[in-house]
């Protein structure tokens, strides 16, 4: 009766702070992630983690995931609640993803839990459910990128996701491209970052000029408040960069992709203001390395990892990432 499931993490090549504004993103699922092994039954949701303290042990059905302790348990509890699950589950969580590093450890845990609890439906259905679970469990108003990249990953491909239509287009990653992540050593969580504040500012700008991914640069330039103007400019120009980067990847033009990544970092630093001096220094350092085409912060920012695009034979002080398949059930219970 044991189920065994795996959900990857993701690294975002380009397109940050655009998903919740209906923009485009270009993430890829990676080879690291979360494995859950467990057995259905009983009246409680019980989960232990190899790296996180405390045991999740709550009666089913879960009614208030936001108050569950330990706090990491809010993600699986949120998924169980949103699935409307009434019977229990007892499982072990094993993860090789850095926590709080911008590689979607929480979306990976959510999507793995959904598979472990037997969720059915398309990767998009599962991603929507897990995004809603994260909002219910933590109050963070995140977009769909992380959960969808984790659920729908395609081996050897990045995913061009239009977050307005939720359409996913796999884009092959050229074999000459090496993608690395380098840890800044600065840990952050979305709940205590200024994520919600940035989102509110982007929403306020959109209330003035309409959907930011499609707003004209002239209308953005007419926004009187300099902070809202800068937030809008980031979202609009970042969406243009995502489209250009996807086209350059298809054309095998890694130099161009790298330039766009650096432009993205500058925009996240200056217009969206989600970088840190540590991330900036790391990016500046990495782009000096021969054979490195570009680097940028990846994910929400405020710390975490830098993503690097380099030639295949170049080594940088980090971890090389391979575009991997999305979440999957490795072994289902015999009666499922
Ligand atoms: C976090 C959120 C995503 C996205 C990124 C920034 O990872 O969970 O939805 O907004 O930040 O691009």
Could you please describe the fold and organization of this structure?
With 336 residues, the chain is of the alpha+beta class. 35% of the residues lie in helices and 26% in strands. It has helices at residues 74-83, 105-116, 123-138, 145-152, 195-209, 217-221, 226-250, 254-270, 277-287; strands at residues 2-14, 24-40, 44-49, 55-59, 89-95, 157-162, 167-172, 177-183, 292-297, 305-311, 319-321, 328-331. Helix 1 packs across helix 2 (105-116). It starts with a strand and ends in a 5-residue tail after the last strand. The structure holds alpha-D-galactopyranose. Residues 16-17, 19-20, 142-143, 145-146, 299-300 line the site of alpha-D-galactopyranose (GLA).
Give the strand tally.
Answer: 12
- Please give the alpha-carbon distance between the first and last residues: 9 Å
Q: What is the makeup of the main sheet?
A: 8 strands, mixed
CATH class of the largest domain: Alpha Beta
CATH architecture classification name of the largest domain: 2-Layer Sandwich
**Percent of residues in beta strands?**
25-35%
Distinct ligands, ions and cofactors found in the model: alpha-D-galactopyranose
Mean pLDDT: 95
In the CATH hierarchy, the third-tier topology of the largest domain is known as Ribosomal Protein S5, domain 2
Keywords summarizing the entry:
single chain, 336 residues, alpha+beta, Ribosomal Protein S5, domain 2, Alpha-Beta Plaits, four-stranded antiparallel β-sheet, 9 helices, 12 strands, 35% helix, globular
Provide a brief overview of the structure.
With 336 residues, the protein is an alpha+beta fold. Helix content is 35%, strand content 26%.
């Amino acid at each position: 009766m044991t189920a065994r499931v795996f959900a990857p993490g993701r690294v975002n090549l380009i397109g940050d702070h655009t998903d919740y504004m209906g923009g485009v993103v270009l993430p890829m699922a990676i080879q690291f992630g979360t494995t859950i092994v467990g057995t259905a039954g009983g009246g409680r949701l019980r989960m232990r983690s190899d790296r996180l303290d405390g045991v999740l042990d709550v009666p089913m059905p879960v009614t208030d995931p936001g108050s569950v302790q330990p706090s990491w348990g809010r993600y699986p509890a949120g998924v169980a609640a949103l699935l409307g699950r009434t019977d229990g589950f007892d499982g072990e969580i094993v993860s090789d993803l850095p926590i709080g590093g911008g590689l979607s450890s929480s979306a990976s845990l959510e999507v793995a839990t959904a598979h472990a609890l037997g969720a059915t439906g398309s990767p998009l259905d599962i991603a929507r459910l897990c995004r809603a679970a994260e909002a219910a469990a933590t109050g963070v108003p995140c977009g769909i990128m992380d959960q969808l990249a984790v659920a729908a990953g395609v081996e050897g491909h990045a995913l061009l996701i239009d977050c307005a239509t939720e359409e996913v287009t796999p884009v092959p990653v050229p074999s000459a491209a090496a993608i690395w992540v380098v840890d800044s050593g600065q840990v952050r969580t979305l709940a205590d970052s200024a994520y919600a504040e940035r989102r509110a500012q982007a929403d306020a700008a959109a209330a003035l000029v309409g959907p930011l991914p499609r707003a004209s640069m002239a209308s953005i330039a007419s926004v009187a408040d300099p902070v809202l103007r800068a937030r809008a400019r980031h979202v609009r120009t970042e969406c243009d960069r995502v489209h250009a980067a996807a086209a350059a990847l298809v054309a095998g033009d890694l130099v161009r992709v790298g330039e766009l990544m650096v432009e993205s970092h500058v925009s996240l630093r200056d217009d969206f203001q989600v970088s840190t001096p540590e991330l900036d220094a790391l990016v500046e350092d990495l782009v000096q390395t021969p054979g490195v085409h570009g680097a940028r912060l990846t994910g929400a920012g405020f710390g975490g990892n830098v993503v690097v695009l380099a030639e295949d034979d170049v080594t940088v002080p980090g971890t090389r990432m391979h575009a991997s398949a999305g979440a999957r059930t490795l072994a289902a219970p015999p009666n499922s």
